[in-house]
Design brief:
- The structure is a homodimer.
- By secondary structure, chain A is of the alpha/beta class.
- Chain A has 2 domains: 71 residues, Orthogonal Bundle (Arc Repressor Mutant, subunit A); 110 residues, NAD(P)-binding Rossmann-like Domain (Rossmann fold, 3-Layer(aba) Sandwich).
- The first copy, chain A, contains 8 helices and 9 strands.
- In chain A, the strands form 2 sheets. In chain A, strands 5-6-4-3-7-8-9 form a 7-stranded mixed β-sheet. In chain A, strands 1-2 form a two-stranded antiparallel ribbon.
- In chain A, a hairpin with a 2-residue loop joins strand 5 and strand 6.
Chain lengths: 206, 206
């Protein structure tokens, strides 16, 4: 399966997995691509095409084994292992995300926190002490898989310069800027993009 | 231009506009689809195809007028008007988003807030008083264009039932559930989907 997997396909995998998890929780054991497509509002052919990148999994006339496919998707995305994750920016957004991960996604282990606000440095979230940028720079060197940037754009750009050469493999960036870091995968999240898309739909009703 | 515009195209419009805004702020007056594609890491043909849905705008050999195209995209998405927006859920995530919108996106006017936590009811954010669910139900009836749900899934589903029949035209849902509300456009945001996609890339380096 060494074929090229487009970003669009990768972006759809988490959604497939979410729906399969829900079906599993409902006790459903198998589902056809047609029924899955109906629930997810995509075509059966899209589902088959997407999954074919990874080997297919479905059986003609049988459909997909829900639990099996969910497990397979977790494996493909690497959700069957754990990640050490650290946050730059411990304001409201950072805390909201830490809170969510700690409560719902145990595969992400928060191991480092950074914020430069004096009243935050030295305090704890989820048992981890918030470090100043200077101290965190040393912490960044080893043992962090994913860095989350929940700080303003200017800080995001500063931090990005320090990522190269560390063990960080991925950056999840909420800093309202598009970061490019050589050798490190960055996913830039622009929350208001989806709000703007919503406005488009409001102004173009069916 | 009454052709069908796919969700994928709509989702790309905010990104085009962000890049054009940045170019405009840098004083750049025009740009070819090739150069814009290079900056945005998409093909020139993709850009031309996407914009052709709305009339094209570029001139052969001249490229796009940056300010003109940015303005046109704002018009297309309806970002040249204002929206009354209300929040259900005034915890960390809700406050982070309110804070961001108030500081950066003045077209969204926060007009209503709801949270059922007793210590929050009656307090203010951005000059608006947080109402209990019961009081907010009346507030919801009129004068709200967009409802943001930054509350748990179970509350999201309850609120969804009350949206029909109000003036609400769009729901921006962070409630970790996929809402379907008849006659109302819902954009479901699953923050961790992009984190899971990031994990995929970490486990499949080039």
């Amino acid at each position: 399966m060494n074929n090229y997997v487009s970003d669009a396909v990768v972006r759809r995998l988490p959604r497939y997995r979410r729906y399969l998890k829900k079906l599993k929780d409902q006790g459903i054991q198998r589902i056809s691509s047609k029924d899955l497509g109906n629930i997810m509002d995509v075509t059966a052919s899209q589902i088959r095409q997407d999954l074919n990148h990874f080997g297919g999994f479905g059986q003609q006339g049988y459909g997909y084994g829900v639990e099996e496919l969910e497990g397979k998707l977790e494996e493909i995305m690497g959700l069957d292992r754990t990640y050490n994750i650290a946050f730059v920016g411990c304001g409201r957004l950072g805390r909201a995300i830490i809170n969510y991960l700690v409560g719902n996604e145990p595969i992400y282990k928060v191991v480092g926190l950074c914020d430069n606000r004096p009243d935050m440095i030295g305090t704890e979230i989820a048992g981890i002490t918030i470090q100043s940028k200077e101290d965190f720079k040393k912490r960044m060197q080893r043992g962090i898989d994913i860095l989350v940037i929940t700080a303003p754009a200017v800080i995001a750009e500063e931090v990005a310069e320090d990522v190269a050469g560390t063990e960080i493999k991925g950056v999840w960036n909420f800093g309202h800027t598009e970061l490019n870091i050589k050798g490190v995968k960055v996913i830039n999240v622009h929350l208001s993009d989806s709000l703007h898309a919503l406005c488009y739909y409001i102004n173009h009703p069916d």
